[in-house]
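re: that chain from earlier
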Amino acid sequence: VQSDTAQNYTIYYSASGPGIDQDPKGLFYIERETGNIFATRAVDREQYPSFQIICFATTPDGYSPEVPLVHTIRIEDDNDNAPYFTQDLFEFSVLENSKPGVVVGKVTAEDRDEPYTLHTTLKYRIVSQNPPVTPAFSLHGDTGVISVLLPQLDRELVSSYTMLVEVRDMAGQPFGLCTTGTVVIRIEDTNDNAPSFKQSQYETRVEENRVNVEILRVSVVDLDEPGSPGSGAVYEIIRGNDDRSFEITTDKNTNEGVLCVVKGLDYESAKQRILVIAVNNEAPYMLAPHSQQLSQSTSSVTVHVLDVDEGPVFKPCLLRIDVKECEDIGTNIGRYIAEDPETGNSEGICYRIPPGQCNWISIEEKSGEVRTIKVLDRDVGEMRRGQCNITVLAIDRNGKTGTGTIQVVIQPGNKNYPRITKTEYIMCRDRKPICLTAQDGDESPYSTPFVYRITDRSLASSWKITRHNDNSVYLSPKGDIPFGTYDIPVSVTDNGGKVGENYIKVTYCDCVTPTECAEDTRVFGAGNVTLGVWAILAMILGSLLLLLILITICGCCGSGVMHRHVTDDCANHNLIISNTEAPGEEVMDHNIIPLQNTCDQGGYGIKTGDQQTFEMVKGRGHTLESVKGGGHQTLGSVKEGGGGQTMMDTCRYSYSEWHNFTHPRLGEKVHLCRQDEEQKHSEDYLLSYNYEGKGSLAGSVGCCSDQHEEEALDFLDQLEPKFRTLAETCVKR
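^ sequence. v structure.
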């Protein structure tokens, strides 16, 4: 560096490179007088690839007339570093019989010199191979990739190769720097060698009836790598083992085949058995190049069966006996016998059943006949399972025993009658069909489908049955029938022909919903009916009112002077409210029935008898008859005596006679009383009572005071239950 005005020069360092953290001061110096820059020692490019220095020019008095000058110094590379491999040892593996060109692996090397120069251009080559046979692999000079070169790699001949490889810089030129490395290539095994038996024939012996016993070991030769799937032997019996009496397995430690007997052999059936055994490997066989397919190796084994005195044998070993349900005790259900294998017959063999088993059957000691010792019912206790396995022992003369099993299976029987689950129904005026459903405790085929039939001919003419499904039908009337209760006998026949008789009680009621009729039935039903508190109070009050009326009538009629006329229901002022003790207003009406002395007491009264019936006492010479002429009935019955003279009965009317007279007339009056002058129903004829039954058709008496209709008492022919209850209560009192 030079300056026209300055004479003294100084520099400051600014180095860049791997050694930037070190102090590079002292690597360069500058002459103060000339400005020449010199290196003080050798500089390593790999340590300091480049430097920057700042030069200052100053006058003797220290003045800097010029701007500092920056210089960059780059260190040029020299081929002073040899290439090196990234690993000390390269290990690869390849399958034997691999084709040429198959990549085995890749070696890599590095060089610290400047990249992309001849100093770092590397070349690879194989220096040597061990064993020193025909070269088996090739090494790509630029990439370092190792490939298969030999057409046949045989692990059985050479299991591994060791190669010395070299890497050289300067593109492999002789003056380049180089380094060597080691590569080991292991040849992996394939199953290219089939196993073969050491012997083509074997012989062995075994006693009859021995099971799970080893009788022979066989071995094979396999050139593949021991312990690999290519050498692991797999044995099989390919002929002579149709009954599966033998089994052969592989001992993993020795690779031998172990032949065992898993099912007892019978000397009497076969004195020797000849087996053919074959062997394969665990891995599939791979045919080597330029070789022929080998046949499977086989060997024959002759097994001699030794005779042993053995016990009886049941044939079959498991006997199934089907028993019908509920068979009688002692029923012969079968025979189970055993044979002596030595003689082939059953002579001298005894049978018995060991204790501790289900106690269903017994076996006859000599003949082997099997009989039931209890009634077998699938609905009882342990028999619900439906079957039981029973072990039977057979003992020969020498005390040898054999065992067999009897499987007793209880077959379902037709022991239960089909029955209808619900037998009481309520049918309203809509006559909706009733669904009858039957159940049968038996199983198929002794249960469904069921056949229903009405057994009563008279009821069958008015009721019909319609099929719904296999176990249900619909019951409905054929036409109009009167209200009432019907007990309909219905027979149900199951699929086995067993008939169950059922009685269906149908209450045909004048209702909209069955609950209405059910309430009436609960309240007014005969027998065990429970009345409510309010109903009992109403009955007591009614009885007291009736008693008061009777006393009043009797008091009025006892004088014998005053003639009271009883008007019919349509007379004006039926009920007269009076707060005085004076008699009521005399009413003259053509409907008046004079009340005269009757029998001994005059008037009409009520008498209760021992049979809880009450009768109305009739007056002598007078009857309750209509004043409208002879076309109306009289209350009494006129009997004709001898000589054409009419004779009155014994001065009494029964309750039924009084009922038949008053009921139709009162019904018509009440019906007419419900209407006003415009033929509209009055609003007060239906009153609410503290009673849980239906309202009376008689309605209220308030609307009947001023009505004048024709006399008709048909209503009393059908009294409501509460009137009958009131009457019965009065009779009892």
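The mean pLDDT is 76.
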